[in-house]
Amino acid sequence: MTENRVSLVEMRNISVSFGGIHAVDHATIDVYAGEVVGLVGGNGAGKSTLMKVLSGAQRADSGQIFIDGKPVTINNPRDAKALGIETIYQTLALADNIDASANVFLGREMMTSWNTLDDVAMEAATRKVMGRLNPAFQRFKNPVKQLSGGQRQSVAIARAIHFNARVLIMDEPTAALGPAETAQVRDLIRHLQKEGIGIFLISHDIHDLFDLADRITVMKNGRLVGTVSKTDVTTDEVLGMIIGGTRPAHATVTNAYGETPVTA
Length: 264
Hints:
The chain is α/β, with parallel strands linked by helices and 264 residues long. Helix content is 31%, strand content 23%.
C-alpha cells in the first residue's frame, strides 16, 4: 500500500530514557496521508512517550523525525504545530465554560481592528470548519460542558483542522463514550482520512483499532514489537503481540524500511 510513496511523517530510531529506564528504545513508526496507524501496547509500553516526542512535549535522546521525507527539528509544541502536527488529548483540553468557537480559537483568538475579540469572525470560521467535519453540529452558543462526548470531540478536532493540521495524534478518542458517541467519533476519523490527514491513534480498544486503523503498531517495554496490516492479523494475534511480544509467523511485520524490528 505504501511502497512507492513518501511517508507524511516518519519517526526513525527514536530513543528516550528517564534515568536508567528506556521508555522508548530505537522505535521507528510512520504514517501516510489519509492513513490511520493504530498505536497500542500495555501500560509502560512507550507509546505515549513516543507520541510526545512527535508533539514536542518530550525531547528524544536520539533519532530523527522526517516530514515529507525531509528531516525536521521539533523542540516544543509550537514547532510541532508549525509543521501541521496537532494532538487531541484524552482530556480534550477544552475550556468547559466557553463555547465552541472560543475553544477553537483558544490561545489564537481573532481580533478586530479595535483590538477586541472578533466573536463574529470566530463563530463564522468555526461554523465553516464544523460544516466540513460534522454538519449536524448546531450547538455553537453552548458552553462545551453542556455538549455530549462526541460533540466535544468534534470541537477539539475542529480546532486542529482549522489551523491546517496534516497529522493528528489522537489519544484514546473513544474512552468513556457510549456506543452512539463512539460511532460519531469513528465517523469523524473516517472523514479526516478522506481529507488526507494522517492519524496516529493511541487506543487500548482492539475494536477501535480493527475498525479504524490501516496498520497497527505494537510496542512493549519501550521497544517495537512490529507494525502489521490489520488485514493480515486477527485480534488474538495482536493481543499476543501486546502481551507476549510475539510476532505472527504469517504476517508481514515491518517498519518504515521493510525491516523486521527487534522483539522486546
